[in-house]
Amino acid sequence: MTTLPLLKTRNLTKFYGNRIGCKDISFDLWPGEVLAIVGESGSGKTTLLNCLATRLTPTTGSVEYQMRDGQYRDLYRLTEAEQRLLMRTDWGFVHQNPADGLRMAVSAGANVGERLMAVGERHYGRIRNTAADWLQRVEIAVDRIDDLPRAFSGGMRQRLQIARNLVTGPRLVFMDEPTGGLDVSVQARLLDLLRGLVADLGLAAIVVTHDLAVARLLSHRMMVMKDGRVIEQGLTDRVLDDPRQPYTQLLVSSILQV
Ligand SMILES: Nc1ncnc2c1ncn2[C@@H]1O[C@H](COP(=O)(O)OP(=O)(O)O)[C@@H](O)[C@H]1O
Ligand SMILES: [Mg+2]
């Protein structure tokens, strides 16, 4: 059996008025592959990610996604209801700020359980057990299940957001600076945890980061963006150990502050 790409992006371009958000982006993402998008602030990383996740509509270009039935569909030709269903079932989206991806007014357990209910689970006991199991997987003590996320530290909130996203068994997870708002000591542990989960679950992921250490640890392949365009892409180790573009060489040698 031949493996086909999960996602095929062609000439994706987003303008904000006259300003370029991202321009002419083409790439394939394979099942189980982790792709990092790196570049300095304003290079178009978030614009690209939001277009891919259908949170923004591109100006031109297409993204074909292989649905669970094996058929490719152009994401921007799906109905809003179909897009929402993908978002709830097949995809996760981890925001930099956990408050953007959590419901802060309901308990940790409910934050995880709610996503299960959204895919049709109705049995209260099973929902609670699965939520407890996922809290453990992200290293949150199960006796915190009834606490509100606002009682949690930044690192715990981010781990809760990850549990909420992974509980439904997505095939693809989008992440925008998943460790960006955290203390350095907390970042390292979260990265380890994320790397383990992504590998165990065989997840495909697209991770936006300005931090090359995050790209090194999490990704198989990376794309370097500058002024809305991809200027270099390749296997992560190759790009970081042997960057070809002068701009990437600057990034890697940390001369550029990003
Ligand atoms: N909502 C918006 N309206 C107008 N311009 C925007 C908007 N969002 C981003 N931009 C511009 O698009 C470019 C890319 O921004 P962004 O995708 O946020 O980059 P990054 O995530 O790499 O920091 C920048 O020039 C930014 O100013
Ligand atoms: Mg951004």
From TrEMBL:
GO molecular function, one term: ATP binding
SUPFAM superfamilies: P-loop containing nucleoside triphosphate hydrolases
Record flagged with keyword Nucleotide-binding: yes
Protein name (Swiss-Prot/TrEMBL): Phosphonate transport system ATP-binding protein
Record domain ABC transporter: where: 7-252
Cross-referenced NCBIfam families: CP_lyasePhnK
Signal peptide positions on this chain: none
Alphabetical list of PANTHER family matching this protein: PHOSPHONATES UTILIZATION ATP-BINDING PROTEIN PHNK-RELATED
PROSITE patterns for the chain: ABC_TRANSPORTER_1, ABC_TRANSPORTER_2
Keywords tagged on the record: ATP-binding, Nucleotide-binding
Matches recorded under SMART domains: AAA
Taxonomic superkingdom: Bacteria
Protein family per UniProt: Belongs to the ABC transporter superfamily.
InterPro entries membership: AAA+_ATPase, ABC_transporter-like_ATP-bd, ABC_transporter-like_CS, P-loop_NTPase, PhnK
